[in-house]
## 1
Amino acid sequence: MKTENELTPKQWQLANAMSAISEECYAAGWLSGLEYTLWRFITYEESDARWGWSTIETARLDNLRTLALDIGGWIVWDDDLGEVFLTFDEWKQKHQMDNKFGDWPWRMIRGDQ
């Protein structure tokens, strides 16, 4: 885990892209659960995703997916630390512990299950 002050430029790029979507769709810098919603979109949506007041275009979802693959992980919000980078393994563990979507199955963007 890397905290906000330790993020690399590419990790910041992903964090900022995620935050920009939150801002456009809900006028919130980081809407609660943003990381889970965007993960669902990049792993299950094949086209534009309607969310809040806006539509997230496929190209933007592809960009999030590409950035995540490039950095080998995902950005999450921590109430004490702000934006935090988690490796895919750390994210998978957090995702499964939080279980935000009930029976929604875990799916990796790298192709592993």
## 2
Amino acid sequence: MSQRDNPATRSELLAERARIEREIAEYTSGDDSPFPSTPHDTTDADVGDEADAADDLEDASRNEALVTVLRDRLAEIDAQLARMDAGGTSHQ
């Protein structure tokens, strides 16, 4: 049975695509940016504020990497769906 004939596969891909889009939105806060929307002001920072700012930067870097992985997976899903639409299989 080809992947085109398997509606469960298409449904699973579409569900995964929707889940990934939601995750990307969560990480980017809807503004397509993996960085915090309100970074700490460090103009008069003490050690605690500097540590908080460093944590924010680390979180932003991690989020950016996660968003990149998620977008790559989204592209793979889109390619699989396109192959299914063209009558090919979902295997690369």
## 3
Amino acid sequence: MSVSQLIDRGSAWGYNAGGNFTYLVTKHVGVGMIVRYSEASHTTTNHFSDASNLPSSAIWGSDSGTATFTMKHGGIQWNGGISFHF
């Protein structure tokens, strides 16, 4: 039995946008909120879908060859807090 390792490398383009809001309750204390959204996607190969060398391919994936799929990354992020201004 032998074990092999596959390393996939690549890059993808995406975008992000965001904003920051601060409200000063007093001259030195404020509350704020940050919201940002990011999105990217890339296509990769599912190396586990190639079941051509396995005795029973019914539980592993396709009978021969490999399948590709698109992965999506990102989403909305937000946080808030108290700020002190001096």
